[in-house]
């Protein structure tokens, strides 16, 4: 990154990133934006743990605490975990299937900018009268009763960023269906591509219910509708259904790509092909499918009745089977392998016991009557942090170290990486293990403080100390990034030396057209197969020819900016501000104007000519 | 080093687990010290599922530890390429079928218990001629940030402190009057939400021996985020033997309006009538509609164990509370609804409130 900056000057780099439609640069944008939001969510978490370190603490006020817990959850799920996964999907998936870009590069950029402006809007609430305070679930009775504009920020911000995610999902689906290199059949796709595929399908089906319910919430709060107003004949339970019909698949949208990253890491650093590849694919699809059948297990205590509770209890248990298949397949992948404990592999290895611990408490919660005790207690907090931190965040950290050379052409320090790992790993278990017992001992979740004399003091203090360890881990990662970028030691195509899939066959970072010649895929782990035959490059599927590339465009930024502006208008419209309606209309005019401009103006892109490609250094692309 | 770490962690996991399963937490609050049939059944399910799951963890851990210790890349093996194994149908069938069997073992008692705990038929049995039922029914109404408990068959109303008989099923009608809350007495059984849309029904049972262990006073919690003072929306559950409970109910039914003799309390009563009475009732038979019952019923205030559910029960804390409720329960509905009281008035009001008793009249 820094070399480019030196060559081209700061302003032109910024402009380049503002207008880029290249999946690799968009990945970097996702990584930076998601990383910043991750740090913000982390600071919120630290404040939460500081407040709960001792009973009757007054480090933050009750109202601020609710804002912190809401923003921590919302930020981590929507603005950190998902975008960071989208970063890796963008950076790696097209390379893994041997494509030159995603199917819709323009839409890809639009997706990012919508996410970015949505997240920005949501976080501006801190400075404009208070953040949302009804939890990331924003249950309707509380979110309608909430004063100020906090919930409006939540509704509008998530709506805008949700559009972006939905576009991303559709884009990846089309890409994987249509743009695989010759010979890359479905059953030869790397597992990260498979999990991206299934997660994108989940996005496609899960986000519309969220969009619909957020629209209803928006109209209830800003335009006088009564969808959730019980006094006017509305119903609040319907919000819970909508939210969890989205919310449960959302969990799998996060964890499946994480599984994908770990699958790649296990097989790479064990030097073995993934054990039971077909059953891994089958399990991924099955988890995705069952993910839509279990939402009501978040609602066992709502009073849906024993029939619904029993059905959803059993359905939820069923998910444990494909997940178990995956765990055992990973174990058998490393079994008999030649394991090298690099930093990514350390995370992958640590992921197994951590995630199993989170998974089994998930099955325990499927036992509906027992869940009446667990529900909304710290047991649940412990459970979902075990799966989301022990699963998703470990995968993100592992992926950061694993794919850093492919994204930036330089390796993160393994030494500092191990330091990060040790602190994060110890901190994670210290923070969350004890929370299981806090919950069982009667501590409800989302409590601003707790009174002494209830047997909860020690556990909470331990948990807060653990959180500090995690913070040290994250800070060391940041230091690692800075040091690595400054040193900037360039690496070759396959820096881990055991790369198996197509992305390791091309230079790090990949050239902007990815593959000079589309590769011919001759089996699972295509690059590994070539290496085993003593080759260092892929077999090309086509002669060198002109490559068609899309032009950069500033339009995605403008479309997103318009919605960002319109959101302010919609929100302050409630306060009868005279400027609100013009701003709302003005913002929408910008958005639709930019869309019309994009539709009417022909943009055929450009071609990289054969001759230029021939001149390029050979190690940058596929050689015949 | 890695494997040693893992072993150590595992040991500590089992140690903590053993500690937990042998019972920890406070008997008046912990789900691990079940004090009634519902909690006991839920506790048994927890144990069953924990045992199954620890078995799974053990199997995974053994394979895991063996794999990461036996198959590390050693010096001299840098160029060794392990055998590329595709998979094994036998193994895959084994680790599909065994979990299914384990889950079936778990599913059967789960479904049974789900239906058992949702069985509230007795609640709806036809009332007797005098309009009462055999089953004891309590209507629970959750409010920002207080609880109302009504005994509809006895026309008795109380707030913040639920009184229940031991060793018999107590049925609950649950609802919320403003935003969603959730009714949870951890030691007695799982929670159920108090919705704004509908009335939820369930039952709990309090074991007399266990109640005694807990000092006949259980802690109740709101388990659904409901606003700034969600964390402070506690209530208490006082358990009495069935005879004592009947006695209590009839005392409540025949309670007379408070007639304080103490001069400070008499002045306090005047203050109360001017400032507080429009929201707070002082007799257990409040016949106003629920929309008019804006604040906790104070008929038994002098006998409670806490002020506002959280503060110690004494005059000093009571005066602190009245002076500035916002300080103790941010976002409550009481702040600013009455005139500023001077110290003398506070003393008088506190004296009056502390004299509000039913049992010791």
UniProtKB/TrEMBL annotation, chain A:
It holds the Pfam family COX1. Pathway: Energy metabolism; oxidative phosphorylation. It catalyses: 4 Fe(II)-[cytochrome c] + O2 + 8 H(+)(in) = 4 Fe(III)-[cytochrome c] + 2 H2O + 4 H(+)(out). It is an enzyme of class 7 (translocase). CDD domains: Ubiquinol_Oxidase_I. The chain crosses the membrane at residues 27-48, 68-92, 104-128, 153-179, 191-217, 237-262, 274-295, 307-332, 344-364, 384-404, 416-441, 461-483, 554-572, 578-597. It is a multi-pass membrane protein. Signal peptide: none annotated. InterPro entries: Cyt_c_oxase-like_su1_dom, Cyt_c_oxase-like_su1_sf, Cyt_C_Oxase_1, Cyt_c_Oxase_su1_BS, Cyt_c_oxidase_su1_bac. Residues 9-522 form the Cytochrome oxidase subunit I profile domain. Its EC number is 7.1.1.9. Its main location: membrane. The keyword S-adenosyl-L-methionine does not apply. It is found in: Cell membrane; Membrane. Keywords: Cell membrane, Copper, Electron transport, Heme, Iron, Membrane, Metal-binding, Respiratory chain, Translocase, Transmembrane, Transmembrane helix, Transport. Belongs to the heme-copper respiratory oxidase family. Cytochrome c oxidase is the component of the respiratory chain that catalyzes the reduction of oxygen to water. Subunits 1-3 form the functional core of the enzyme complex. CO I is the catalytic subunit of the enzyme. Electrons originating in cytochrome c are transferred via the copper A center of subunit 2 and heme A of subunit 1 to the bimetallic center formed by heme A3 and copper B. This is Cytochrome c oxidase subunit 1. It comes from Bacillus badius.
């Amino acid at each position: 990154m820094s070399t480019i900056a030196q060559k081209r000057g700061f302003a032109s780099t910024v402009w380049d990133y503002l207008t880029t439609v290249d999946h690799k640069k968009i990945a970097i944008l996702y990584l930076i934006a998601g990383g910043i939001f991750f740090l913000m969510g982390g600071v919120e978490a630290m404040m939460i743990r500081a407040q709960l370190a001792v009973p009757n603490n007054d480090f933050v006020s009750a109202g601020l605490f609710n804002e912190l817990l809401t923003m921590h959850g919302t930020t981590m799920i929507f603005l950190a975990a998902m975008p960071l996964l989208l970063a890796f999907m963008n950076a790696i998936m097209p390379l893994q299937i041997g494509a030159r870009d995603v199917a819709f590069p323009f839409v890809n950029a639009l997706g990012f900018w919508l996410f970015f402006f949505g997240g920005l809007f949501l976080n501006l609430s801190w400075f404009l009268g208070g953040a949302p305070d009804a939890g990331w679930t924003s249950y309707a009775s509380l979110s309608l009763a909430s004063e100020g504009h906090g919930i409006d920020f939540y509704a509008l911000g998530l709506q805008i960023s949700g559009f972006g995610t939905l576009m991303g999902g559709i884009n990846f689906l089309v890409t994987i269906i249509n743009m695989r290199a010759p010979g890359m059949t479905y059953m030869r796709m790397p597992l990260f591509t498979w999990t991206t595929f299934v997660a994108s399908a989940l996005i496609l089906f899960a986000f519309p219910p969220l969009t619909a319910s957020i629209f209803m919430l928006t109209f209830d709060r800003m335009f006088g509708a009564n969808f959730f107003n019980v006094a006017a004949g509305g119903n609040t339970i319907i919000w819970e259904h909508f939210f969890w019909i989205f919310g449960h698949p959302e969990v799998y949208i996060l964890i499946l790509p994480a599984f994908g990253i770990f699958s790649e890491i296990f097989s790479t650093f064990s030097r073995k092909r993934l054990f039971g590849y077909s059953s891994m694919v089958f399990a991924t699809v099955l988890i995705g499918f069952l993910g839509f059948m279990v939402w009501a297990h978040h609602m066992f205590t709502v009073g849906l009745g024993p029939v619904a509770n029993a059905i959803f209890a059993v359905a939820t248990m069923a998910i444990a089977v494909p997940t178990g298949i995956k765990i055992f397949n990973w174990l058998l992948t490393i079994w008999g392998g030649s394991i090298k404990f690099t930093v990514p592999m350390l995370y992958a290895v640590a992921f197994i016991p951590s995630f199993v611990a989170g998974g089994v408490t998930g099955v325990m919660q499927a036992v509906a009557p027992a869940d009446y005790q667990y529900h909304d207690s710290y047991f649940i907090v412990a459970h979902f942090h075990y799966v989301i931190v022990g699963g998703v965040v470990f995968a993100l950290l592992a992926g950061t170290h694993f794919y850093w050379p492919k994204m930036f052409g330089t390796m993160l320090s393994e030494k500092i990486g191990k330091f990060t790992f040790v602190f994060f790993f110890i901190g994670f278990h210290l923070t969350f293990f004890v929370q299981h017992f806090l919950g069982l001992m009667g501590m409800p979740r989302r409590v601003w403080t707790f009174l002494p004399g209830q047997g909860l003091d020690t556990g909470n203090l331990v948990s807060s100390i653990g959180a500090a360890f995690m913070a040290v881990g994250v800070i060391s990662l940041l230091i690692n990034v800075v040091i690595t970028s400054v040193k900037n030691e360039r690496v070759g195509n396959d820096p881990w030396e055991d790369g198996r899939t197509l992305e390791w066959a091309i230079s790090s970072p990949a050239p902007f057209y990815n593959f000079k010649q589309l590769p011919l895929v001759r089996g699972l782990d295509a690059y590994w197969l070539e290496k085993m035959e003593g080759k260092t490059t892929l077999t090309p599927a086509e002669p060198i020819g002109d490559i068609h590339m899309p032009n950069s465009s500033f339009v995605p930024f403008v479309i997103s900016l318009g919605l960002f502006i319109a959101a302010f208008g919609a929100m302050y419209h409630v306060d009868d501000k005279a400027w609100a309606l013009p701003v709302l209309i003005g913002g929408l005019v910008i958005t639709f104007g930019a869309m019309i401009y994009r539709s009417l103006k022909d943009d055929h892109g450009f071609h990289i000519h054969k001759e230029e490609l021939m001149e390029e250094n050979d190690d940058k692309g596929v050689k015949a | 080093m890695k494997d040693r770490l893992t072993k150590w962690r595992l040991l500590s996991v089992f140690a903590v687990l053993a500690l937990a399963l042998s019972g920890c937490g406070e008997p008046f609050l912990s789900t691990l010290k079940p004090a009634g049939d519902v909690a006991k059944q839920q506790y048994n399910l927890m144990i069953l599922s924990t045992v199954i799951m620890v078995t799974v963890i053990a199997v995974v851990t053994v394979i895991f530890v063996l794999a990461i210790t036996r198959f590390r890349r050693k010096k001299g093996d840098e160029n060794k390429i392990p055998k590329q194994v595709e998979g094994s149908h036998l193994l895959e069938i084994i680790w599909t079928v065994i979990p299914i069997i384990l889950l079936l073992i778990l599913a059967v008692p789960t479904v049974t218990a789900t239906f058992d705990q949702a069985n509230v038929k007795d609640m709806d049995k036809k009332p007797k001629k005098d309009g009462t039922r055999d089953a004891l029914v309590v209507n629970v109404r959750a409010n920002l940030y207080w609880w109302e408990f009504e005994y509809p068959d006895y026309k008795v109303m109380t707030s913040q402190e639920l009184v229940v008989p031991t060793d018999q099923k107590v049925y609950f009608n649950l609802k919320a009057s403003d935003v969603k809350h959730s009714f949870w007495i951890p030691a007695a059984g799982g929670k159920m939400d108090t919705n704004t849309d509908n009335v939820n029904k369930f039952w709990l049972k309090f074991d007399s021996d266990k109640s005694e262990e807990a000092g006949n006073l259980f802690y109740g919690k709101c388990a659904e985020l409901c606003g700034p003072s969600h964390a402070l929306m506690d209530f208490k559950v006082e358990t009495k033997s069935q005879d004592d409970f009947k006695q209590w109910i009839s005392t409540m039914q025949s309670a007379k309006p408070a007639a304080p003799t103490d001069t400070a309390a008499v002045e306090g009563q005047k203050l109360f009538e001017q400032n507080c009475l429009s929201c707070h009732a002082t007799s257990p038979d409040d016949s106003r509609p629920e929309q008019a019952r804006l604040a906790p019923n104070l008929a038994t205030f002098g006998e409670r164990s806490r002020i506002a559910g959280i503060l110690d029960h004494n005059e000093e804390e009571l005066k602190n509370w009245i002076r500035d409720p916002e300080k103790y329960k941010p976002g409550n509905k009481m702040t600013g609804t009455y005139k500023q009281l001077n110290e003398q008035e506070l003393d008088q009001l506190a004296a009056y409130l502390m004299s509000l008793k039913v049992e010791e009249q």
